[in-house]
Every structure is written in structure tokens, then in C-alpha cells.
Write a structure and sequence with these properties.
The chain has 947 residues and is an alpha+beta fold. The protein contains 32 helices and 24 strands. The longest helix has 20 residues.
Length: 947
């Protein structure tokens, strides 16, 4: 569900002090009038047709470079679905002037980042780097446009990676087939949009190295791309560099293949049913063809979608989830592409409810749009939300570049469309919404999809790969020159690095109210946005025995009613202001948070106070939240990666408080009573142990006045609860566990053990080492598992720091038969880091990655506030904010090796694998004879043994 009212927060975000904030609204809120500034890009066109857009911002130490190629999955040749996306992966390899993985060296290794995405109409590459590295990135982007090197080994390896991405996103996810495969195939009849962007295993296998080279020669050309640069640069120097590196690139003489299929009007309604394995709850979807991105009706359809499904006051949530309680989730999505578009409304049913109930309920809500105008209040809410979202989408330089790039692709070159969108939204009337509903969302034009669990009578529906396309392999340009990596002496030299632009941290105001509430203020100039977060010592470790999930339920229920406001009223108020509001509990803390435009932020703080101080905890709301959480658990426990996440805590901590699943279990949740929730709140939501952080467009006097007005007279009755002693408990013996999920599309693999508390002297050496091990794309684990062997779409590791001993976890998802090999690779890299000091080059690049991520966090109001809150939650001095870079730079290689040997020794490690054991158990048992096998159907998350 698209939500302004956010009910959960990842435990890792709470642990690391990541963005969180504080609520928003007034019961009769006025329409937001905050202004959204124009993007401010300057346009020029090179003689070779390359369109260039630049925008200078001297307030940042960074710069973003993006190249948007006008080629997407709609351009995949027939029999080669997934080709544009596969090629996206290959673009990060060598050119004639630099070897494989150089883009990571030029970005991550200097404190920046890089990534790319492929959709139906575009493949876009984007990097954000310290501004003094701009010339190098321009050189590199031009070089891969003109002289990419693709060899057979790299081609096969990246194809394997994409196939693992397919298994993870399509096969292992319970609803992956529905949204990734069956939705587009049902909505579109003739358009190439009917194929999924990631393709199919069969079509990926059919691709050849020659196909790849011809694809690059056809589409990766200056006149088929947009270059976007934003950040801290000298305009004249930037123009000269662009002319130097991009202007000499020639276009091929061959024109682009024709591809402009006109999607026909539906001949009548369609009704289809698909079956898939491991579908825990039925799902239904209604879909209608609508309009392309550049159509004037897109604005009205966008507003309609906001009224339909954005937030808990939306029609779908209010009807299907809140009132009827027949769905665990309900939402909609308008997907307007360059050539055509569609809108979907869908629901994942609640346990015990049928797909037919969902179809009837969705149809009823859509009929309301056709039958009667939306209310003035609904219209204003939707507009306020969309305008506030537009403001947030312009917060950073890469945000602004993304907004421009999306508009350029959608409109096929109209840069002004991005700034016009706000006025177009504001001009939409209730009559417009009803008109587009009557024109496009009619029963005769609808496709109805039911998505159900496969069984013996209804086997899994196969993906249709025999889908024609307007582009054929024969239409692609000839290969042309085949580039190879030149000898080092013959390569064009990499440009020198310019003088660095250093990030700066604000002075943090720190004071207490008379009732003990600590208030921290981190001002940030720029956009009129303010974030706040109110944090309490109220985590899952503080729950009573047998009450797992109480902390999370308490946090979720804050927004479900107060003494004077009902849950629907709260949702409405939030959405009237265009605010993001929520609460979430982690192992140690609960955060209540919000992000709102500055002109309505005082109302946000007033609502926050009511939510925290006067929650109703109504019995019916507790029942509703419990049911929704149980439905969510049913979905989670059908997905290998989420099963692993639920089980790892028990493996690391056993029966200690940290071992209990934070979301609760299927047995603990029904046992939680209203008295449990009331008691937990009364004992742990108290001002004397709380911290309120403001960040963004706010001054200390403003923050002091808001805090005093909202919380100054807060004096709760009773006494606070004593903190839980040693929530990590005693160390438990390591185990090797297989959770057997027959038919799983992938296996999830983890190596896990106790780590350290946040407030430890080893924190920075371990953080630096973890970044090297599995904390970045260029990490050792990713190199070994993804890049060298193509065994996973991605691997990662985390220290999982907490107040007491944390949980180190290194994990990956892979095809089932490869699980034992991935276990071995992870264990070997953990051993290596504790046995041998990293190289000085590795340490230098990891320092840059950490300081670059720190600089990125300072760019947003939530990021800045999260850094400040993270220090406060772990009782660290505010001076650590300014000292962060020095603390990172002060770590050397020997300290990293010693810290890993001391704190992350592999002999304490447990191994957990979730997947289809029939495909890997014998091989795993040969390596680990003590392996325990637990059928997923017998998994008991209430027990330290998991049985």
C-alpha cells in the first residue's frame, strides 16, 4: 500500500539511527500552499545530437552524473526478452581504456555510488560522487558509450547474475509472478510492454555475445541519450569537459529500429486465473489500459489514484482493509509509459477470504468514481500529498536529475513537463476525476486477474515466452569494431582529481524541557521540509515473556486512535498535510516519526503529541492490527529470505530477549491483550527517558517553542520500567540449520553470530571491515559470489549493532543447488578478514565509502536527523557528528583485522539455509555433518530450538 501513514520501521533502521521523524496534522487542516521550486536545468545539444542538461548547486559537496538511454525492454528483440536489462549489467564492465569494475573504483571507492535501472522505455545509469571527481566520471561515461568491451566470460557471468535476480524477484517471491509476469502479459494485447523487463530464463539462455554487441551498436549512441549533470561544478569547465569527451562520439549511419506499436482498444472484458507455488493468500487485480505519459489525462488519473489508494484514508484501504477486513493489503498503481499506459487496483486477501470477494469489492470502489464526483476534501488531500511528494522528490541533486530524466523519457524529450506537472495536478477538478473514470475505468475495458496457490488440480501457470515483438535481431546494427582492453601504456589517461569540496555538519542545539525530555535541533537550509522523531527506550527486548510483538503492536496502534481522534480521522489529517507519519519498534527503541512541509509542521508536532500522549488502544483496533500482522507473517513465512530473517535471531540469541522475533509469532500475537499494550506504553513511553530530534528548515527558537507547546506539560502517572538487563543473554553454541521449503524458487543463506554493542571501542574498525566484507557492491563477498561466479544477485553483511551484543549476519540468495558453495564462500571470507590484514588500498577505499555515505546522509532532512538520533539513542556525544570523518580516517588495516579476529571469529558462527533441501542437503551435510533439518511446516519461532 502506498502510505503516508507508515506503520512499521525496519529494525535495522532503528538500530543504526536511520531516518525517522515525528507526526503531523490538525483536524481541519488547510490546504498546503508550500511552493515547489523549478528544477532549474540548462539545456544544450551537441552537434552529434546528445542532449545535455546541467544544474549547478553550490550547497553540496557532490555532483551527480546520469546518462539516460532511450532504450528499454520494449526494444528487446523478439525471442530476447530481458535483453535491455541484461545489457545494463554489462555496461559496468570494461572499455578499451579501463578494465572491469572500474566504475566501482571511480565511484564507491572515492565515497560515491553508482547504479542503473531498466524499465520499459529507458536504461539509465547514475552516479553521485564527490565533486572533485566529476571529470573522471564524464570521461568514463563517454568511454563506455563509445568503446565498451564485452567478452564471453563476462557475458556468461552477468547473464547468470540476471537469472539469479529473476529467481529472487519472480520465482522466490510469492507474488513475483503476478506483478512481474502476469500483469503486463494480461493488460497489453499488442504492445511490447506485455513482456516483463527481466525477461525469462529461456530467452536469457538464448542470447549470444554477438547479439549483445549488436544491441550496443544499435542503441548506445549520442543521439539516443540524455546526459544530466547536477551539483557543485564550474559551468564553463563542465561544458568544456563535455565537449572534450562526448562531442567526438559519432552516431552510426543506420537509423534506430522502428518501434511504435499502437495498443488497440479492448474488445471486451477479460477474466483470467493464474496459479503459482507458495502463494500464502489469494490475490486479485483489476487492470485497465489508460493513457501514455504525455497525455493530458495523466494528471487526473494520478489524482484519482491518490484518492483510491494513497494512505489509510484512501478508499481502498478504508473499505477493504479497515472496514470490511477482507484484505490484508489493497492498493493501486498508475503506470503511464511513453507509448501507452495502464492503471491497476489490487488486493491481497486476508486469511479466510476469497478472490471473488476481492474482485467484487474492487469493482465497487471503482464504480464509485464513475457514479459520483469525489468530495472536495478528498480532492484537496490528494493534491496536497502529490505536491508534498514533489517537494521531497527534489531534495537532493540526484533526486532532481531523476525527476528530469523521467519526464524526458516519458514525453520523448519535453524537459518542461517535469515543472508543469505540479500545475497540472493543481488544476484537476472533481469533474475531471469522474470523467477519466468514466472514460477509462469501465467494466468493458477491464481485465480481472485472480492469483491463487497451485495444487495438483491447478498446476503452476507457465510464463508465456512465445511473445512477438516489433524489433527483430535482424534489425540490429552490425557489430562493427570489436573493442578489447588496450595495453596499459596505450590507454587514454584517467583525468586527474581536482581539489576536494568538504562536507560540513551543522551545530546541534541540545536542551531539555522541565519534564526531562531531551530536545536536539539540527538545522538544514534548502527546501522547506522539516523532519522530527521522538524516540523511547521501548524495544522488543523489553517485552514480557511470551508477548513477542507487543512493542511493534504498541507502536503501530499509536496512529490508530487517540482519546479525541479515530484512526480514520488521524489518517485524513495526515494526508491533508501531505505528511509522512509512522511509528516502529526495533530491539532497543521505538521511534515515532514524521516528515512534513515547513508551513504545516507545527500541526504535525501537535498531532505527534496527541498520538504519543493519548493513545486509545481500542480493542477493535488491536484486533485489526493483530489480524493484519498475522496475515503479513503468513506471506513472510512463504519467502525464503524472510523466513531466514525471522529465524536468525533465535539462532544467535536463543531464548534471550533479543532472540524473539520483533514482529511477533503466530502464537504470541493472539496472546497479547489490551492490558499488555496499555502497560507497555505507560511504563516505557515517558518524557524523562525520551529524545526528540528536529532536523531541516527549523531554528532552535522555533523548535524550543514547538517542543514546549506539545510536550512541556507532559507528566505521565506511575513509574517507568527498569531497563532489561543483558538482553543478548549468554552466548549460545553455533548450529548448522536447514529450514526445508519444498519448491522454493531460491535458497536464502546466512552466516550469523553475536557481534558487539554500538558503544564499543571496536565499532569503527568493525564498521570499516564490514564495509570491506559485505557492506558495499565492491565488497569481497560480492566480488566472490556475484561478480566472479554469478551465484547471486547480491550479497551483504551487517554488524547489527545494538545496545547489548549485536547480531552479525552475512547473507545471500542463490539457486538451491548452489547453497553449499555460497556457505563455503561466506565462511572463507569471514576467516580471511580475521586472519590477514586488508591491503592499504582496501582500507583507503572503505574509508571513502563510509565518509561518502555520511555526506549523502547530510543531504536530506531525514538523513541528518537520523544521524543525530543515532548518537542520542546510544548515549554518544553530539561532537561525534563532526568527528565522524576523523574517526573513520583514523582506522588502520591492523585494527580491522584484530577487531574481526576478536569479535567475529568464525568458530562462533552459525549457518542457516532456507530453501528446497532436496537440491542441496547431501552436499551441505558432506561439509557439515551436524546439520539440523527443520521442515518449514514445523518451524517454531517461539523456541530457541526452532522446533
Amino acid at each position: 500500500m502506498k502510505s503516508r501513514l507508515i506503520l512499521t520501521a525496519a529494525a535495522s533502521a532503528l538500530l543504526l539511527g536511520l531516518p525517522a521523524a515525528a507526526p503531523a496534522i490538525a483536524q481541519t487542516a488547510p490546504a498546503a500552499t508550500v511552493a515547489v521550486p523549478p528544477l532549474g536545468f540548462v539545456e544544450r545539444t551537441l552537434p552529434n545530437g546528445l542532449k545535455v542538461y546541467t544544474a549547478r548547486d553550490a550547497s553540496t559537496a557532490n555532483v551527480t552524473v546520469q546518462v539516460w538511454y532511450k532504450v528499454g525492454s520494449k526494444d528487446d528483440p523478439a525471442g530476447r526478452s530481458g535483453f535491455a536489462h541484461l545489457f545494463e549489467h554489462l555496461m559496468f564492465k570494461a572499455t578499451k581504456n579501463f578494465p572491469d569494475e572500474t566504475f566501482d573504483r571511480l565511484t564507491e571507492d572515492v565515497g560515491g555510488n553508482n547504479n542503473a535501472f531498466t524499465s520499459d522505455d529507458v536504461t539509465a545509469y547514475h552516479e553521485t560522487i564527490p565533486a572533485n571527481h566529476l571529470q573522471r566520471l564524464l570521461f568514463a561515461e563517454a568511454d563506455r558509450m563509445s568503446s565498451l568491451v564485452v567478452g564471453e566470460d563476462v557475458f556468461r557471468s552477468e547473464r547468470a547474475v540476471v537469472q539469479e535476480e529473476y529467481r529472487q524477484g519472480i520465482l522466490a517471491s510469492p507474488y513475483g509472478r503476478l506483478f512481474g509476469v502476469f500483469e503486463p502479459a494480461t493488460v497489453y494485447q499488442e504492445s511490447p510492454y506485455r513482456r516483463t523487463t527481466i525477461g525469462s530464463i529461456e530467452d536469457l539462455d538464448a542470447a549470444t555475445l554477438e547479439d549483445v554487441r549488436r544491441f550496443h551498436a544499435t542503441y548506445y549512441r549520442p543521439d539516443n541519450a540524455y546526459l544530466i549533470v547536477a551539483g557543485n561544478f564550474d559551468q564553463a569547465q563542465l561544458d568544456a569537459w563535455i565537449d572534450r569527451y562526448f562531442a567526438p562520439i559519432a552516431n552510426p549511419e543506420r537509423p534506430l529500429p522502428a518501434n511504435n506499436v499502437v495498443e488497440p482498444e479492448p474488445a471486451g472484458p477479460r477474466d483470467v486465473t493464474f496459479y503459482a507455488p507458495n502463494v500464502p493468500l489469494p490475490a486479485v487485480m483489476l487492470a485497465w489500459p489508460t493513457v501514455k505519459y504525455g497525455d493530458p489525462d495523466r494528471a487526473a488519473l494520478t489524482v484519482l489514484d491518490g484518492i483510491l489508494s494513497t494512505g489509510e484514508s484512501s478508499r481502498l484501504y478504508r473499505s477493504l482493509v479497515y472496514e470490511q477486513e477482507i484484505a490484508s493489503q489493497a492498493s493501486s498503481s498508475p503506470d503511464m509509459k511513453q507509448q501507452a499506459g495502464h492503471l491497476t487496483a489490487y488486493a491481497i486477501m486476508a486469511d479466510g477470504h476469497t478472490a471473488d470477494e476481492g474482485v467484487a469489492a474492487l469493482n465497487a470502489e471503482i464504480a464509485r468514481f464513475r457514479d459520483e464526483p469525489v468530495t472536495d476534501a478528498e480532492l484537496a488531500e490528494a493534491k496536497n500529498e502529490l505536491v508534498a511528494d514533489a517537494l521531497r522528490s527534489r531534495e537532493t541533486i540526484d533526486d532532481r536529475a531523476n525527476v528530469l530524466g523521467s519526464a524526458l523519457i516519458g514525453t520523448n524529450g519535453d524537459a518542461s513537463a517535469a515543472d508543469r506537472e505540479i500545475a497540472d495536478i493543481q488544476a484537476v477538478t472533481a469533474a475531471d476525476v469522474q470523467r477519466v473514470a468514466r472514460r477509462y475505468l469501465t467494466p468493458q475495458r477491464a481485465a480481472t486477474i485472480r492469483y491463487l496457490a497451485a495444487d495438483d488440480a491447478n498446476p503452476t501457470t507457465a510464463q508465456n515466452t512465445a511473445v512477438d515483438a516489433p524489433v527483430r535481431v535482424a534489425d540490429l546494427a552490425p557489430v562493427g569494431e570489436i573493442f578489447t582492453l588496450l595495453p596499459e601504456a596505450e590507454r587514454a589517461p584517467m583525468p586527474e582529481i581536482a581539489a576536494a569540496v568538504s562536507p560540513s555538519t551543522p551545530a546541534i542545539a541540545d536542551f531539555r524541557l522541565d519534564n526531562g525530555l531531551r530536545v536536539l535541533v539540527a538545522p538544514k537550509s534548502g527546501l522547506p521540509l522539516v523532519s522530527a522523531r521522538l524516540s523511547f527506550d521501548a524495544g522488543s527486548a523489553d517485552e514480557a515473556a511470551g508477548k513477542a510483538g507487543a512493542a511493534s503492536l504498541t507502536a503501530n496502534l499509536l496512529t490508530q486512535g487517540t482519546a479525541t481522534r479515530s484512526a480514520p480521522q488521524i489518517a485524513t489529517e495526515i494526508e491533508q498535510l501531505g505528511a509522512n507519519v509512522g511509528a516502529g519498534a526495533g530491539p532497543d527503541f521505538t521511534n515515532v516519526f514524521a516528515n512534513a512541509p515547513a508551513n504545516v509542521f507545527p500541526q504535525a508536532v501537535a498531532l505527534m503529541a496527541d498520538l504519543v500522549r493519548n493513545p486509545a488502544f481500542a480493542e477493535e483496533e488491536l484486533d485489526r492490527q493483530r489480524t493484519q500482522t498475522l496475515d503479513g507473517l503468513k506471506v513472510a513465512l512463504s519467502t525464503p529470505g524472510q523466513v531466514l530473517n525471522q529465524a536468525v535471531g533465535r539462532v544467535v540469541y536463543g531464548n534471550a530477549p533479543y532472540g524473539s522475533p520483533g514482529i511477533g509469532t503466530v502464537t504470541s500475537l493472539p496472546s497479547i491483550t489490551r492490558d499488555d499494550i496499555v502497560g507497555f506504553h505507560a511504563a516505557r513511553y515517558r518524557p524523562e527517558a525520551a529524545t526528540l530530534v528536529f532536523s531541516g528548515d527549523i531554528t532552535e527558537p522555533q523548535a524550543r517553542a514547538l517542543a514546549q507547546s506539545a510536550f512541556g506539560d507532559w507528566a505521565p502517572a506511575g513509574s517507568s520500567a527498569a531497563p532489561v538487563a543483558a538482553p543478548a543473554g549468554q552466548a549460545v553454541a553455533p548450529r548448522v540449520i536447514v529450514i526445508d521449503q519444498p519448491g522454493a524458487g531460491q535458497a536464502a543463506v546466512a552466516v550469523a553470530m553475536r557481534s558487539v554493542p554500538r558503544a564499543t571501542a571496536d565499532y569503527f574498525p568493525l564498521t570499516l571491515g564490514n564495509t570491506l566484507l559485505g557492506g558495499s557492491f565492491t565488497s569481497r563477498l560480492n566480488q566472490e559470489i556475484r561478480i566472479k561466479r554469478g551465484l547471486s544477485y547480491g550479497t551483504r553483511s551487517s554488524l547489527g549493532v545494538r545496545r547489548d551484543a549485536g547480531a552479525f549476519v552475512a547473507s545471500a540468495q542463490t539457486r538451491n543447488d548452489a547453497a553449499p558453495e555460497v556457505v563455503d564462500l561466506i565462511l572463507a571470507e569471514v576467516v580471511r578478514l580475521g586472519a590477514t590484514a586488508p591491503t592499504e588500498s582496501e582500507i583507503t577505499t572503505r574509508r571513502a565509502i563510509l565518509t561518502g555515505a555520511f555526506s549523502d546522509s547530510l543531504e536530506t532532512v531525514d538523513g541528518l536527523g537520523g544521524l543525530v538520533a543515532g548518537l542520542a539513542l546510544y548515549d554518544l556525544p553530539m561532537s561525534d557528528l563532526a568527528a565522524y570523518v576523523n574517526n573513520v580516517e583514523g582506522v588502520d588495516a591492523d585494527e580491522v583485522q584484530a577487531a574481526f579476529a576478536r569479535d567475529i571469529p568464525v568458530d562462533r558462527a552459525s549457518v542457516v539455509v532456507v530453501g528446497d533441501a532436496s537440491k542441496f542437503l547431501d552436499a551441505l551435510r558432506a561439509r557439515h555433518p551436524n546439520v539440523e533439518v527443520i521442515p518449514l511446516s514445523s518451524l517454531n519461532l517461539d523456541s530457541a530450538t526452532l522446533r
